[in-house]
């Protein structure tokens, strides 16, 4: 009276890859490029927004004059667009680098492998380990120096630009 049916689960991605004879990629098995791709994916909007703001402010007549003076599109980019967008590039680098250097959760979430340890992971590990205060302090100082140098360069270049106008 009662018919029992066996419901087979839908094939997962590994089955599909094996069926077409492609090897499966273990994205979450501690590969460094997985963490790099996730960081780029997460922080690329913070780089694009200031860059777009500065590129949008470039006067189109400057680009047109570069082409009128015989510049190829590539030389117009190198001689006109890139120097005028330098403050936007620097602002994007500062905005992206501040949170990314302290980001350790992305690495823990995607990999957790010692091969992909970032400086934020090292600071977190030293903080949670008893007796590692000196190591943690030295890592924080290294991180501060790595972040202060581009910030000082950005402040110096923007001050020079403001004084020139």
Defining key terms:
165 residues, mainly alpha, 7 helices, 73% helix, flat
Q: How much helix, percentage-wise, in residues?
A: over 70%
Rg over CA atoms: 25 Å
Low confidence ranges = none
- Major sheet: none
Distance between the termini: 90 Å
> Mean pLDDT across all residues, rounded?
82
Give a quick summary of the entry.
This protein is 73% helix and 0% strand. It has 7 helices and no strands.
Can you put this structure into words, describing what you see?
This protein is mainly alpha-helical. The protein has one domain (30-164). It is built from 7 helices and no strands. The longest helix is centred in the last third of the chain and has 32 residues, at 133-164. The radius of gyration is 25 Å and the shape is flat. The model has no long low-confidence stretch (mean pLDDT 82).
SSE topology:
Layout: H1 13-19, H2 32-57, H3 60-68, H4 73-102, H5 105-110, H6 119-128, H7 133-164
């Amino acid at each position: 009276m009662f018919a029992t049916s066996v419901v087979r689960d839908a094939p997962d991605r590994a089955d599909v890859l094996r069926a077409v004879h492609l090897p499966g990629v273990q994205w979450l098995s501690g590969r460094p490029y997985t963490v790099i791709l996730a960081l780029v994916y997460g922080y690329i909007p913070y780089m694009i927004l200031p860059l777009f703001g500065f590129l949008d402010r470039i006067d189109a007549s400057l680009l047109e004059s570069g082409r009128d003076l015989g510049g190829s599109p590539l030389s117009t980019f190198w001689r006109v667009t890139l120097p005028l967008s330098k403050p936007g590039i620097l602002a994007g680098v500062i905005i992206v680098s501040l949170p990314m250097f302290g980001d350790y959760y992305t690495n823990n979430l995607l990999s957790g492998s010692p091969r992909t340890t970032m400086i934020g992971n090292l600071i977190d590990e030293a903080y949670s380990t008893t007796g590692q205060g000196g190591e943690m302090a030295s890592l924080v100082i290294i991180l501060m120096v790595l972040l202060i140098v581009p910030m000082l360069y950005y402040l110096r270049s923007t001050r020079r630009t403001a004084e020139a106008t």
